[in-house]
Structures are given as structure tokens and as C-alpha cells.
């Protein structure tokens, strides 16, 4: 099977109308990779929305912009994941009056028998299926951790007489997606309590008490994209449609004149800001986060061709960030 050398790829880009030449741009192409760089960043969300690149310099600047966004988000996402897990863990142990996984499953996870007589059969079966899937995910997480020799798990299984792994150890090894699923399986009372512990106000449209886990699913998609160095500037990582409650919550909190559909990266900046405020991060720290996003985006906008900037940066981003800063 034939392939193109770096020089061949440079010639190929030139034939496509992308200006590229010289040792510096050759090295930049080598470092970013033709397939990761040009192939990955030549469109916005999908291949039908091509970004009008005319120079390799603008491609390189777009890759750098995306990398700077990932650096901006990374630390905040790790902080949020850790903090929310610990807040939820504390509440689950209080509500189940135990640090036992099995007591949690028995007392505050919804199943078929959690509903009163006359409740829709489909609703009861769906809850039971979710509970069974949760139990399976827990066992799988423990099995993977044990096979890898994770000391937080092996300590309990290998001690004389064996033993049960406590909730706190489970939470340490759970992925963010599995954690979100666990929260979704809890009864409404515990979900309400977790929301209250986070300092959230119950949104009137959140009739099914879904916000506390749906926001985690949204964050999970961003977190995984950042961790795996996937493209994030156009939010192509988001595969789920936000609920009315999610849109209303962020729009109402930040007093936005426009809806929030999590289809622009600035919407995720707002969501991270929402978490940071309720996790009691300092106004100075949150303002710095918002200003860094402004600086990264402004620098990119003035560095690339205007048509490229228009294709990559959504026009309402500055309004959203200004309104967020006004709340601090």
C-alpha cells in the first residue's frame, strides 16, 4: 500500500489550496500529524461544515487553540469530578446509614419494588433494569481494579476471611460515566439531597430530578475528550441532546438571553463555572478561569484569517462570558 512522505503531504496540501512551505512548517506538520491535525481540524463538528483554511499557519493555530482549551479545562474537570464524588459519597452514606455498597443498593437505589401499587409497569421494569446494570457495573469495576492490583480494592479482598469493599473505595475507581449512572439509579430523595448539598436550587422543569446526573454525563463527554486529546473546540464530542431542565437551569442562572444547548465550547465554560461557584471556589479563581478563556479565544481570533475565526468561534460567546463574570 502506497503512502505519502511528509514532503508528499506538504505537496498534497498545496494542491488543495493550503499554503505550506519551509522547514518550520514541515516540523509543525510532523509534530501535529497530518491525520490528527489537518484531517481532524479541517471541519467544524462534521465533514459537511468545512473550515475555509487557506494556510497551514491557520491550521496550526487552530490546533494550538484547541490544545490551550484542553489545558484550561483539565484541572477544573478533575477538581469537579473529585469534589462531586465526595459530596455524593457523603450523602449516600448518610441516607443509607452505612458505607456498604450492598446497603446502598438495598436501601436507596430504585428497583421494581420501589414504586407504589398502581405505578406503570414499564417504569418499574426500567428502574429494575437500571439497578441490575448498576450492580453489574459495580462488579465489573471491582473486578478490573482487582486484576490490576489496585491496593484500594485488593486490601479488602485479600485480607483474612475476605471482606466487602466499602463505598469510598468503589468511588475512587469508578469512571465518571459509571458514577453518573449510579446517581441516576438513586431514589428521588437522595438525588434531591445531593443537589441540596451541592447548593443547587431545584429547577421547576426538573420534574424527574435528572439534573444532578445529566450534567455529569455532559461533563463526562468533555472530560474524556480532554483526557484523550480529542478535538473539543467545536463540541463534536457531545453526542447527547440536553434536556429542557439542563437548558433552563443554565439559562436562568446566568440570566442569558439565548438558550444553552451545549453545542458551543462557551456553554461548557458556563457549566464548569456553575459547578465552581457551587463548590465554593473563590471569585478570584473563577474569574481567572473566565478571563483565561477570553484571552485564549481573543488571541486566536486576531491571529487567524477572519473567515476561519468566524467558522470556529460562535458569535455569542462574549455575551455569555460577560454575564457569567457579572455574577461574581
Could you explain the architecture of this structure?
This protein has one domain (19-26, 54-326). It contains 16 helices and no strands. 33% of the residues are buried. Helices cover 66% and strands 0% of the residues. The chain is globular, with a radius of gyration of 23 Å. The protein has helices at residues 6-15, 22-32, 35-41, 56-96, 101-107, 121-147, 151-158, 167-173, 176-185, 188-197, 211-227, 244-254, 265-278, 283-303, 306-312, 317-326. The mean pLDDT is 93. With 328 residues, it is mainly alpha-helical. Helix 4 packs antiparallel against helix 14.
Short précis:
The protein is mainly α and about 325 residues long. About 65% of the residues lie in helices and about 0% in strands. The chain has helices spanning about 5-15, 20-30, 35-40, 55-95, 100-105, 120-145, 150-160, 165-175, 175-185, 190-195, 210-225, 245-255, 265-280, 285-305, 305-310, 315-325.
Secondary-structure map:
Layout: H1 6-15, H2 22-32, H3 35-41, H4 56-96, H5 101-107, H6 121-147, H7 151-158, H8 167-173, H9 176-185, H10 188-197, H11 211-227, H12 244-254, H13 265-278, H14 283-303, H15 306-312, H16 317-326
Helix pairs in contact: 2-4, 4-10, 4-11, 4-13, 4-14, 6-9, 9-11, 13-14, 13-16
Integer-rounded radius of gyration: 23 Å
First and last CA, distance = 58 Å
Q: Could you tell me the strand content as a percent range?
A: under 5%
Helix share of residues? 55-70%
Low-confidence stretches: none
User: How many DSSP helices?
Assistant: 16
How many runs of DSSP E, i.e. beta strands?
0
Tell me the overall shape. Answer: globular
Largest sheet: none
Helix and strand string, N-terminal first? HHHHHHHHHHHHHHHH
Mean pLDDT across all residues, rounded? 93
Structural class: mainly alpha
Query: What number of structural domains do the residues give?
Result: 1
